Amino acid sequence: MVQVPVGAYDCDVLVVGGGIVGLSTAYAITRAKPGTRVTVLEKEPGPARHQTGRNSGVIHSGIYYRPGSLKARYGVRGAAEMVKFCAEYGIAHAVTGKLIVATERDELPRLHALVQRGRENGIPVRELGPTQIGEYEPEVRGLAAIHVGTTGVCDFVGVARQLAAASGAEIRYGARVVRIDRRPDRGVAVLTSAGDVVRGRVLVNCAGLYCDEVARLTGDEPEVRIVPFRGEYYELARPELVRGLVYPVPDPAFPFLGVHLTRGIDGGVHIGPNAVPALAREGYGWGVVRPRELAGTVAWPGSWEIARRHWRYGVGELHRSLSKGAFLEAVRRLLPGVEPDDLVRAPAGVRAQAVLRDGTLVDDFLIREGSRAVHVLNAPSPAATASLPIGREVGRRVLDMLERASS
């Protein structure tokens, strides 16, 4: 066991995870209390290699989320702050607005409910009829839509790099956490895969796809398990078919937004993602299988409950994963003119979805505290959008913990 000797600290705060949430936390801590020593441990050779760098790059408005929830509050606030941050540091971004389009009559009540939710969350929305849809997106067809003007796109990897630089934290890449020794009266000591021991007063767990495992290494039971869902994308060979961002009306029973069209800051248009079970926590393709991780997912009772409740939805997602024709059919609901050759495979991402023992998909950001530790246990989309407020909240808890420890 790694030991934590009295008085021998390499840093005040030890952050596990160099994605956008971990780096935002480091940034928030050093901004709130200059002089605080922060070390970030990231197992990859650079920042933002997983959820941060493999999403569609959308700055979400916050329209989807339950009023009063962390996702709603941090999403709305974070979108405005992210645009300001990108402008301040010269990071590529654009406020494009987006359309949420109903293509079937049974979607109209859900679309109208989104209008109300948007207003409750303080988001300006404009309701559109079929003709008005064409004014924004000439190739898109629908019965009705809403336009959300505060949605945008940005380079989240660039944001993560800037956060790392501006934080002044020590960033150690290639430093996978192997073991953690947490002593409530002293602090934490972490053994990395490089053989180094790093000692800090407080640990912050922003490990994303592995956050539940890091919590258990610390000695805290997270009471959730990360169940990985792969999101597969295509790129549109004729990007001129789409001007901006186009989304379907989401099913409120799921945390996934459905196959949508996203014109990125590079001018390319991504289509996706779907949502299929991944066979590894970093399972970016069907050929990536890690038996230990898969066994852990299968052993969690919540995984079986998800399968039992939502098997019909899951079958449809699997069909779209295995059949380009089925994926094309889903896209054509929004974009009728798209042809098979227009869809070119693009890199996939994996969503770190926290699931309770009873099969409930955690639908809000989840932050929990232990002795000398703060764990971010659910931070999928829109966490990149909301990363600045999330970082401040985690940072506030960490600084309070440090103050209590020193008193």
Q: Quick check: average pLDDT?
A: 95
Helical run tally: 10
**Separation, N- and C-terminal Cα atoms:** 28 Å
Estimate the global geometry from the Cα principal axes: globular
In this structure, how is the largest beta sheet organized?
A: 9 strands, mixed
| Proportion in helices | 25-40%
Q: What is the CA-based Rg, rounded?
A: 21 Å
Beta content comes to 25-35%
Stretches with pLDDT under 50, minimum 5 residues = none
What features would you highlight for this structure?
407 residues; 8-stranded mixed beta sheet; 33% helix
Structural features, described:
The chain has 407 residues and is an alpha+beta fold. The protein is 33% helix and 27% strand. Strands 5, 6, 7, 13, 14, 15, 16, 17 and 18 form a nine-stranded mixed sheet that branches. α1 links the parallel β1 and β2 (38-42). α1 crosses α10 (387-406), α2 crosses α10 (387-406) and α8 (301-322) crosses α9 (324-332).
Compact overview of the structure:
This protein is an alpha+beta fold. It has 10 helices and 20 strands. The strands form 3 sheets. Strands 5, 6, 7, 13, 14, 15, 16, 17 and 18 form a 9-stranded mixed sheet that branches.
